[in-house]
UniProtKB/TrEMBL annotation:
Top-level lineage group: Bacteria
Name of the protein this chain belongs to: biotin--[biotin carboxyl-carrier protein] ligase
Keywords, sorted A to Z: Biotin, Ligase
Residue ranges annotated for the BPL/LPL catalytic domain, each copy included: 3-200
Record organism: uncultured Rubrobacteraceae bacterium
Enzyme Commission number(s) of this protein: 6.3.4.15
GO cellular component: cytoplasm
Keyword set includes Magnesium: no
């Protein structure tokens, strides 16, 4: 598969990909990684598929995954407790953004964790975690595993992604040439390893997030719990929530989808 095989991936010597599975087709790498995690696979297991027939994104949305993309999920067994799980997505977004810059794509992070190039979505991140089955506050619960999914629109035409209602782009259309998927994976794994390795110093991660983002300063619309809020994105809280200046004062948004609004329209 485009230079990707368990052997070539293990040749990268990444601690995040000590175990690697490469499939021609899978329902979802996320589901396969979860299956492996439940069966006890170690930290640093990577599942890649050339095609996903049931790829999914945040909020249960379908994620078009035809041939040419890099569809992957990592099994992580984090050392930190469950209360820090929400940091994974933004920390990963910083790593993925840096990897894209390394291969020549000037990517920006749209809160919380979409990667855009030229204002169009080029990559999505899906982090899901499972805490140990003990009672008590999250602070005292260890994370059993986290599954970090990365959906990278790599060597395809945007039209192949089948999302006519959303503005999407691909690495190939940004660079004007195909990218070697093993080189892309190398850049992703090394940047993810570096960023996830300093998740305990989340203030430093968020500083980088700020320098790579395209949301702060923008007028945005947030849809949550059936209603919408509009405001200007001011900053992030210490744990990465979005602080919005609205007509009713500052509102902290913990999760959800945002739209960037430009000139009174949608952007
Ligand atoms: C989003 O932006 O909504 C997140 C998209 C995440 C897609 C990736 S592709 C690899 C992995 N497998 C899945 O089914 N989803 C993630």
């Amino acid at each position: 598969m485009s230079g990707l095989s368990p052997e070539s991936i293990q040749g990268l010597r990444s601690p995040l990909a000590r175990v690697a599975e490469v499939h021609e087709a899978l329902g979802s790498t996320q589901e396969r990684a979860r299956e492996l995690a439940r069966a006890g696979t170690p930290h640093g297991t990577l599942v890649v598929a050339e095609v996903q027939t049931g790829g999914r994104g945040r909020l249960g949305r379908p994620w078009g995954s035809p041939k040419g993309g890099l569809w992957m999920s990592l099994v992580l067994r984090p050392w930190f407790d469950a209360s820090l799980a929400s940091r994974i997505t933004q920390t990963a977004a910083v790593g993925v953004a840096k990897a894209l810059w390394e291969i020549g794509v000037e990517a920006r992070i749209k809160w919380p964790n979409d990667l855009l190039a030229g204002g169009k979505k080029i990559c999505g991140i899906l982090a899901e975690s499972s805490a140990e089955n003990t009672t008590g506050p999250a602070k005292q619960r260890r994370l059993d595993y986290a599954i970090l999914g990365v959906g990278m629109n790599a060597n395809l035409d945007p039209a192949e992604l089948g999302v006519p209602d959303r503005e999407v782009t691909t690495i190939r259309s940004e660079l004007g040439r195909a990218v070697n998927l093993l080189d892309l994976l190398r850049a992703l794994l090394s940047n993810l390893e570096a960023e996830l390795g300093r998740i305990g110093d989340f203030g430093a991660v968020l500083e980088e997030w700020r320098s790579l983002n395209c949301t702060l300063g923008e007028k945005v619309r947030v849809r949550r719990f059936g209603h919408t809020i509009e405001g200007r994105a001011l900053d992030l809280s210490q744990e990465g929530a979005l602080l919005l200046a609205t007509q009713c004062g500052t509102v902290e948004v913990l999760e959800g989808d945002i739209e960037h609004l430009r000139h009174g329209g949608e952007g």
